[in-house]
C-alpha cells in the first residue's frame, strides 16, 4: 500500500505548493476510520481509497480531489459523518465526499423508471461539481483492477454495469484511456475466452509477420524527417475489446480484420498537424469515408484531433491520429485537464472545456417537462453517442447524435418545424425521413400546414428531444379518445364494486392520486398509464383489500389494445397474467399475444409495424388461461389420482391430459391446466414439485404451434383462446 509520504511526493511532483499537511491528515483520518475493515482479498480496506487517490494524482488533480479520494468511503462505511468531515476538512471536501456516497448508492441497474430517476439525480449532482464523478470513475477503475477477489456472479454484475455505464461515461468525459481499460477489464470477466483468443492471434501474427508496429513507425518517421516536420510518433495494437467489437460489428474473423493497429502523431502546431496529414496521404492511400477532422469541428468535451485511415504495408489498414501537444493533453486527461496542476499552478490549456458546462446544458435541456422514460432515453443517447454536425440552408450548424435523421434535425431547429415536417432535402436531394445524416451535410426541412407528428416517427427519431416532442403531440392528439375510453373503463370498474363513477368521485380520486383533474385521471386510464384497480383502491381501499372486487372480464384482460380490437393467446408460449407480453397483429384477425421471450417472435423482427406494446390488467383474472405442464411420475398405483387431487386443491382445473411415454417404472404426461395468472401457476408447480412421486416437472412450450407468420387465421374471439 502506498504510504502517506509516497502519495504526497507523487502530488508534489506536479504541484510543489500542495497542502501536504491536509493530505497527511486525510490519510491518517481515513486509515483510522477504516481500521479493522478488510477487502474480499483479505487486504486492509484502506488500501482501496489510497489506490483511488494515486489514480487521480497521476491525472495531476487538485488537493481537494485527492483528499476526497482518501475519504470517499468514510461517510458511507464508517462512523464518520458529514459534519465530522466538514469540521475537519472543510465544507467543499465534505460535499464532494457526500456526492460520491450518493452516486455509489444509486441503483443504476434497477427498473427502467428508477434508472431514469437515478440518471436525473446523477446529472444534477455532477452539474454542481464534476470532481464527484472523477472520483467515482477512479473508484470503479480500481475495483475492476481487483475484481478477481469477488464471487463470479458479483464479478459479472459489476463488469456489465461497468461496460454499460461507467466506461461510456469515462469516454464521454474525454478520458479515453480509462474507457479502454474499463472495457478491457470488463471484457476479461464477461468473455475471457474471446479475449484470450485475440491475444493468442496477436502473438501468432507477430511471430509470422514480425513487429508490424515498429516497421510502420519507422516508415512514418522517414517520411516526416524528409518533410522536415518535428513530431513525436507512437504506435500500438488496439485493445482486445476494441478488436472484438470490430469483429462483431463487421461480422468478420480476426484474419480478415485489417484495422487493428493505431498510430498517433504529436506535433508542435496546428499547421504541422495538417502538414503531417498531407505527408501521410501522399505516401499511403487513404481509405474513403474514414477521415474525420475534429480540429475544425471539436467534440463537446474539448477533444481535437485529425483521424484518418490508410492502407499500409501489405494492404494492412492503420488508423492515424494527428494532434498538437495541447490537444493531446486534453485527449489524454479529458475533464481532468480542467483541474490539472503543473508546477503549483492550474494548467492553462486553451482547448480544455469546462465539462460542467455541457452537463449543465444537458440537464437544463432535459429538465423541461420530460417524463422519466424520455429523460433516460435522451440521457443515454446524448451521453453515449458521438456527434454529427449538419448545416441549415443558412449555414447554421446543428449538432446531433450519430445516427440522427432529418426528423431529429427538424426538432433540433424548433418543435414547430419538427411537428410540421413532411419531407427533407440533403445536399439538395430529396431523401426519406429515415435517412441517417452524416457530418457536413446540408439539410433542408420541408413543412406543410396541418401536418402532425406520426406514430411511426418514434422509431425513426433517435434524439430524446424529438422523441419527447412526438410523444407529447401524440398524447395530446389521442387525449380525447383516451378520456372516452377511461370513462367506460372506470364505469365498469365502479359497478363491479357496487359504486357509481360520479364526477365528485372522480375528482376525489384524482386529488388522492395527485392528479390535476378528473379529466387527467380518465386520460391516464384510457392510455393504460393508470389502472382501474388503483383508482378504486384510492377511494375504497377496504373493498380491494377484502377481495370484494370482482374478476376482470375476459375481454378486458389486456391493456393497450385499440378500441374494439380482439386478441388471443399464442398457443406456442401460452402467456398468463403477470408475465411480460407483446402483441402481433394479423390483418382483420386481431392481435395474438406472445410472452416477451417467445422464440416465435423472431419471425416478426423484420415487421415492426405489426408489434403492439401490451400488458395485463392489474387485478384478479378468471382461471381460463390454459398452461401445459410436462410431468414425469413414478408408475405406482394411485399416483395419477393423487396428482389430480393436488391440482384441484390449488383451485386449478385440468382441461386435458395426454400420455407422452409409458415405462414399467415411470410414465410421462402432458397436463393442460386452467389458471388465473403467473402466481397461480407457481403455486401449482410448487405443490407438484413437492410431491415425492413427481420426478420432474416443467412448463411445456411448443414452438411448432406458433401461428403462421403471415397466413390469415380464423376469426378471433374477444376472449383469450384456450391452449
Describe this structure in words.
It is a single chain. This protein is of the alpha+beta class and 723 residues long. Helix content is 46%, strand content 16%. It is globular and about 90 Å long. The model is unreliable at 109-116, 381-385, 545-549 and 710-723 (pLDDT under 50). Its EC number is 2.7.6.5. Residues 628-702 form the ACT domain. One of its GO terms (biological process) is guanosine tetraphosphate metabolic process. This is GTP pyrophosphokinase rsh.
Query: Span from first to last CA?
Result: 64 Å
- Number of beta-strand segments: 23
Radius of gyration from CA coordinates: 31 Å
Helix content: 40-55%
Number of helices: 28
Query: Shape, please?
Result: globular
Average predicted local confidence, pLDDT:
81
Structural class: alpha+beta
Give a quick account of the main beta sheet: strands, pairing sense, barrel closure. 6 strands, mixed
Summarize this entry quickly.
The chain is an alpha+beta fold and 723 residues long.
Topology diagram in text:
Elements: H1 4-12, H2 20-33, H3 47-58, H4 63-71, H5 74-77, H6 82-89, H7 91-105, H8 112-128, H9 131-145, H10 152-172, H11 176-190, H12 192-209, H13 212-226, E1 231-237, H14 240-250, E2 261-267, H15 270-283, E3 285-286, E4 292-293, E5 306-311, E6 317-324, H16 325-333, E7 341-342, E8 345-346, H17 355-366, H18 372-384, E9 387-391, E10 397-401, H19 406-413, H20 415-419, E11 421-426, E12 429-431, E13 443-447, H21 457-460, H22 464-496, H23 503-512, H24 518-526, H25 532-539, H26 541-545, E14 558-559, E15 567-569, E16 581-586, E17 590-595, E18 611-613, E19 615-616, E20 625-634, H27 639-649, E21 653-662, E22 666-675, H28 678-689, E23 694-699
Parallel strand pairs: 2-6, 15-17
Antiparallel strand pairs: 1-2, 3-5, 4-5, 5-6, 7-8, 9-10, 11-12, 11-13, 14-19, 16-17, 16-18, 20-22, 20-23, 21-22
Helix pairs in contact: 1-2, 2-4, 3-4, 3-9, 4-7, 6-7, 7-9, 8-17, 8-18, 9-11, 10-11, 11-12, 12-14, 18-22, 19-22, 22-24, 22-25, 23-24, 23-25
